[in-house]
Design goal:
It is built from 15 helices and 14 strands. It is of the alpha/beta class. It folds into two domains: about 1-200 and about 365-385, Glycogen Phosphorylase B (Rossmann fold), CATH 3.40.50; about 215-365, Glycogen Phosphorylase B (Rossmann fold, 3-Layer(aba) Sandwich). Strands 2-1-3-4-7-8 form a six-stranded parallel β-sheet, with helices on both faces. The protein has a six-stranded parallel β-sheet with strand order 11-10-9-12-13-14, with helices on both faces. Strands 5-6 form a two-stranded antiparallel ribbon. The protein is globular, with a radius of gyration of 22 Å. The two termini are about 20 Å apart. The relative contact order is 0.11.
Length: about 375
């Protein structure tokens, strides 16, 4: 089996870039794999690339030459936006090469890519032919012109059948698959597979669990930090918070007057692992449709249960009363009830949660499981004639 990976790096490093590198490294161990990456830019060069992405002939020509030389069985695209462009799908299709596209975000449903606007869920684009409201609201880069152009690129390639040329879409969660299948994207259900991201098996430290809770993530509204703080202020329960972001100054002020709210600052990966192994549970109060939060995977890999808002990826990643608890999104009262409930659980019951959390990791999110699922998708598309 010959596999060819394609990825476009954002101007700022992100999770999608890491996943591309991880999967490339996995595939190099078991199959014949090559890759091609592109780089998004800012400024005038970035604008030109963005405008050309609707039909980037230069990228298409160069890619066609490589594909004719290598003759892969499959091309697997991680990110096409925007220096690559959707035309590469048509190039591969014209050469009889199977195409797989991983859906890391919601850009194909809405130009926002996050289904958020002004720190609130924005779902208007999901079931419309063209996202005019998103254009008016400037959901992409706060620009109506750029939002329109991105919307047009996706709409245009839908009209000419480019997205239908993808043989299999890889969704990270069951939630994402259901959202896309029930949207105006209009792709048959059998063209969606579920394959989550993964994390390496971490080093475990000999650390005793304590009674405090933990939050790790960006200090911002969409991560539910304001609601988290408001909830813990009403209790004597301790929450340790790690990360950085726009709400950092506010957090420092709150922590200075509330001894049960402890700000740890931005931590390196080893320090985060230590904190995850010492806390009683991770609290994940995000208010948006997260793609696949790596923080939750890391928590499970260390046997740490997750108390999360019942929305998006968290709705399907966390099984209540097994590896964590759910609370209603943005609901301080419900979160308070759940952390209080957890705090008073007998130690023997919490120990079962710890064991179940680690089992969740071993069964779903290890590198070996990820590679197996990825190869299953590849074999699936190779067996299906167009």
């Amino acid at each position: 089996m010959k596999v060819f990976l394609i990825h476009t790096y954002y101007s700022k490093k992100g999770g999608e870039d890491a996943v591309f590198k991880q999967e490339l490294s996995l595939l190099e161990k078991v199959t014949n794999v090559n890759s091609q990456s592109y780089q998004n830019s800012t400024g005038l060069k970035g604008l030109i690339l963005f405008l050309k992405s609707v039909w980037n002939l230069r990228v298409a020509k160069d890619l066609k030459e490589r594909l004719l030389s290598l003759r892969p069985d499959i091309i697997h695209i991680h990110n096409w936006h925007f220096a690559t462009g959707p035309l590469v799908i048509r190039v591969a299709n014209s050469l009889g090469i199977k195409v797989i596209l991983t859906i890391h975000n919601y850009r194909l449903l809405c130009p926002s890519a996050t289904l958020m606007h002004n720190n609130k869920l924005f779902l208007n684009s999901v079931n419309v032919s063209f996202p005019w409201k998103a254009v008016r609201l400037k959901v992409y880069r706060n620009s109506s012109l750029q939002t329109f152009w991105l919307s047009f690129i996706i709409w245009f390639h839908k009209k000419i059948g480019t997205w239908s040329m993808v043989d299999q879409y890889i969704c990270l969660t069951a939630f994402s698959k259901n959202l896309f299948h029930n949207s105006s994207f209009n792709i048959a259900e059998e063209k969606f597979s579920i394959k989550p991201n993964f994390v390496k098996i971490p080093e475990k430290f000999d650390i005793e669990r304590q009674k405090h809770f933990l939050f790790v993530g960006r200090l911002s509204e969409e991560k539910g930090l304001q609601m988290l703080i408001n909830t813990f202020i009403k209790t004597n329960l301790i929450i340790k918070i790690a990360g950085e972001g726009p709400l950092q100054k506010y957090l420092l002020e709150v922590a200075s007057t509330n001894k049960n709210i402890i700000y740890l600052g931005a931590l390196d990966s080893e320090s985060i692992q230590i904190e995850m192994q010492s806390c009683t549970a991770l609290v994940f109060p995000s208010i948006w449709y997260e793609g696949m939060p790596m923080t939750i995977l890391e928590a499970f890999s260390l046997g740490t249960p997750v108390i999360a808002s019942n929305i998006g990826a968290m709705a399907t990643m966390i099984t209540p009363n097994f590896n964590g608890l759910h609370f209603e999104v943005n609901n301080e009262k419900d979160l308070l009830e759940k952390i209080t409930y957890w705090n008073f659980l007998p130690q023997i019951t919490q120990d079962v949660y710890y064991s179940n959390s680690y089992s969740t990791f071993l069964e779903n999110y290890t590198p070996e499981i990820n590679l197996q699922k990825l190869l299953e998708v590849y074999v699936k598309v190779l067996k299906v004639d167009r």
